Input
Amino acid sequence: MSKFNIRAAPPPGLFDSDGPTRETHIMSLPVSLAWKTRFLLIDKAGGASLPSVLDLDRKDQLKVKWNVIAFLTWPAYYVYLGMWKKGVFAALLAIVAVLLVSVLLKGFGLGIVTPALWLVPGVYFAARANVDYYRIKVLGERDGEALHAFFNALLNK
Output
């Protein structure tokens, strides 16, 4: 398994000069036209790390950075898109974190704020869904590859 690097270029050979361009590769993917449009915008923003996202107009930035369905459905949308490992892991982590913070807030007498904490995981999923799906479909990353690399690095220390 290769080491995951968010800023890395696409895998060698994927977009060679004698092969397909990134645009033709994206347009040939078996996804809807809406996803192809998002993928092209992500590509225009510099790829998965989005270094040039501010060069896009506001409407296109919103298309790249936000996914309403992911906000409302959390990991169910990730499972639907085939990213179940990352979706389930992030959901479990979010539930544990929200419950811990809820207990702390109640301990400090701020229990009234705890229902609003359940919006935070939705914001995470909404902000990450488009780029995560781009990594899988366009760059060919496997679901959970970053998690595997993280845990392998953690265990091999």
Remarks:
- Residues 22-155 form one domain.
- The chain has eight helices and no strands.
- The chain has one domain: 22-155.
- The chain has a mean pLDDT of 87.
